[in-house]
Amino acid sequence: MKLPSLKIGKFTASFPLIQGGMSIRVSTSALAAPVADCGGIGVIGGSGLPPEELHEDITKAKKNTDGVVAVNIMYAMKDFYNLVISSIDAGIDMIITGAGFSRDIFKIGREHNTPIVMIVSSAPLAKLAEKLGASAVIVEAKEAGGHLGTDKPLREIFPPIRDVIKKIPLIAAGGITNGYEMAEMMDKYGADGVQIASRFILSEECDIADEYKQAYLNAKKEDIVLTSSPVGLPGRALNNPFVKAMNEGADVSTKKCPHLCLKKCDHHYCINERLMLARNGNIKDGLIFSGENTYKMNSILSVAEIFRQFKKQAEEVYREGCGFSPAV
Asked: What keywords is this UniProt entry annotated with (predicted)?
């Protein structure tokens, strides 16, 4: 059975899939535009970028696709509001945010007619986001890569959030690697769509070093671990020499912060710097965020082929769940 489209605010994605926004300079216009072309929602990772660079990349993405393009900006960023306004000025379709909770962002969204999508891991936060004016909510569980707001699995935290969110779309995120799992979340659990990030690292269009992608391909289940982050949340990453040393108590601190990018930072290392090292191919000293199920993926595919496979697999088993259906 054909999967339903995903309507968020005034925008409709013909295929209910959001590509996760991966910072820093991992999910750029080079990835977001092809995702949007395939009918999903392409997402630029806006955290840690200068506002001018983000503005330029959003403009580039909008020129290269007629599809839906969003930006993900962590509330933990010191220049959060500058990045939000820069994104709106560049013509972004919607803003996705998490790693903290902003009430003011909903007012900005209303003023500029820009849908706000909130990433949460609990029913109370989801309910508050809907009350304040979120256009959709993403439920992100422990299986996700990067910063985590919970230690509980997706299939445990999703149902109670589904119970309280009735008026806006609810998206499932964390550990989804194929179309069968996508259909399960939509059919059995009532998700209106899914967000997927790690699978798009292993895409031809993802503009990162080959060494980064090879680290994903080489990863075994035991190589994907939890670690600490200056953001104040635990993170899920590959257990490379840097992460191993940090988890064993070695001093990996930054003597002088080169970026001053976070509102609150414990400075035990510079996350911006470590993410850029990985993005540029230094897989020994960089921070390689990874979803819990990265080890299940063994090929680099084009974005179009990823969508083709997800669509084929999902529609083989989808039987129409209990998700939100917007009024026509």
From this structure: Dioxygenase, Flavoprotein, FMN, Oxidoreductase
Same domain, 146 and 64: yes
| Enclosing domain of residue 184 | 6-206+298-317
Token pair recorded at residue 108: 């900005």
Other Cβ atoms less than 10 A from the Cβ of 284: the count is 12
pTM for the whole thing?
0.93
Pairing of strands 116-120, 41-45: unpaired
How far apart are the C-alpha atoms of 262 and 79, rounded to whole Å?
A: 8
Token pair of 3, please?
Answer: 């999967």
**Is residue 172 domain-shared with residue 127, that is, in the same domain?**
yes
CA distances from 111 to 42, 105, 168, 277 (A): 23, 10, 19, 38
> Could you read off the pLDDT of 9-41 as tens digits, one per residue?
999 999 999 999 998 899 999 999 999 999 999
Is there a single domain that holds both residue 130 and residue 257? no
**Do 169 and 282 belong to one domain?**
no
Q: What is the model's pLDDT at position 326?
A: 40
DSSP 37-78: HTTSEEEEE-TTS-HHHHHHHHHHHHHH-SSEEEEEEETTBT
Whole-angstrom Cα distance, residue 110 to residue 128?
16
pLDDT at 157: 98
Is pLDDT of 123 > 90?
yes
Distances (CA, A) of 132 to 58, 162, 174, 209, 312: 26, 17, 25, 40, 37
d(CA 170, CA 59): 28
Q: Are residues 238 and 188 in the same domain?
A: no
Q: pLDDT (tens digit, 9 = 90+) per residue, 200-258?
A: 999 999 999 999 999 999 999 999 999 988 777 889 999 999 999 999 999 887 666 66
Query: What distance in Å separates the CA atoms of residue 214 and residue 63, rounded to the nearest whole number?
Result: 31
Residue 322 in any domain: the answer is no
